Amino acid sequence: MNTESKKKRNTVIFVAVATVLNVVLMVFFLICGYILLAKFGKPENVTANQIWVVVIFLGSIVLSWLIYSRMVKWYMKKVNIDEKFAPLIGPKRYKKRPDDSQSNPRNTTQSDSQNNSQSIKG
Fold first, then answer.
1. Of 49, 69, 88, 92, which sees the most CB atoms within 10 A?
2. pTM over 0.90
3. What is the 3-state secondary structure (H, E, C) of the chain?
4. CA–CA–CA angle 83, 86, 88 (5° rounding)
């Protein structure tokens, strides 16, 4: 197995594990938030509980993302990413536009352009 394929394999494994970790963190914070809501929330106040459910959901997303990003930064400092991982996004590839002289099958000379301008005038 060559180095490039190992880098690609490592990248796929890293992205998969990091994604699973992020989802697990989010579910953990959701469950903790719902337990706290059940323990300290008032069941008779339905509107407040609905607002708290939305706050818990958004909070779990934010908390899991913050922890996830810190863990990824820590791991990237620990491991030489250029040596172990393939880039996820490659360099931009610009399409080469053909020159005007190459796109025109017939080379236009000064005399041709003068002839064209004379034929247009009359």
1. 49
2. no
3. CCHHHHHHHHHHHHHHHHHHHHHHHHHHHHHHHHHHHHHHCCCCCHHHHHHHHHHHHHHHHHHHHHHHHHHHHHHHHHCCHHHHCCCCCCCCCCCCCCCHHHHCCCCCCHHHHHHHHHHHHC
4. 140
